Amino acid sequence: MKKLIYFLPLILAIACSENSEHHEESELNEEKHQETMAAKPDSVLRHNVFFSFKETSSPEDIQTVVDAFRNLQNEIDGIEAFEYGVNSSPEGLNQGLTHAFVLTFYSDAARDAYLPHPAHAAFGAILGPHLDKVTVVDYWTRP
């Protein structure tokens, strides 16, 4: 029993130390979360682009276009996010458009700088030989 009494302070010290480290880690995580939330606006500009490709374009050609479009976020400041997918709607209302792309901007100015950017023009040169139809819709999100 006496031996247990000698170890009790050591056990308490270790427990308090671990609790203190956990508390500090929680505070750091909360600060990072608050910084992230402060950096993101409450509304964002979505630039939605819908393509259909020529029948002569191979799956490899289409993947080259997708990869080039995705890479624009690495070449143009202001593109905050990029998503894409292939139409899977059973409604049959896509009017032949097969691929959807969504770019997110935090301002009209960022989107407006993207449109004439040389990297965007270079992407257009890659896309051009394969493009059948295109539709573009931009909107500001509403929470």
Summed up, what is this model?
Residues 45-139 form the Stress-response A/B barrel domain. The chain has 143 residues and is an alpha+beta fold.
Highlighted features:
4-stranded antiparallel sheet, 22% strand, 143 residues, single chain, Alpha-Beta Plaits, alpha+beta
List the helices and strands and how they pair.
Blueprint: H1 2-39, E1 45-53, H2 59-75, E2 81-86, E3 99-105, H3 108-114, H4 118-127, E4 131-140
Antiparallel strand pairs: 1-3, 1-4, 2-3
Helix pairs in contact: 2-4
Largest sheet: 4 strands, antiparallel
Order of helices and strands: HEHEEHHE
Strand residue percentage: 15-25%
What gross morphology would you assign?
A: globular
Q: Give the overall pLDDT as a whole number.
A: 86
Could you estimate the helical fraction of the residues in percent? 40-55%
Biggest sheet, spatial arrangement of strands: 2-3-1-4
From the alpha carbons, calculate the radius of gyration and give it in angstroms: 26 Å
Structural class: alpha+beta
CATH topology of the domain at 45-140: Alpha-Beta Plaits
Question: Which CATH architecture of the domain at 45-140?
Answer: 2-Layer Sandwich
* Tally of contiguous helical segments: 4
Subunit structure: Homodimer.
Pfam family, one: Dabb
Organism: Algoriphagus chordae
Protein name: Stress responsive alpha/beta barrel protein
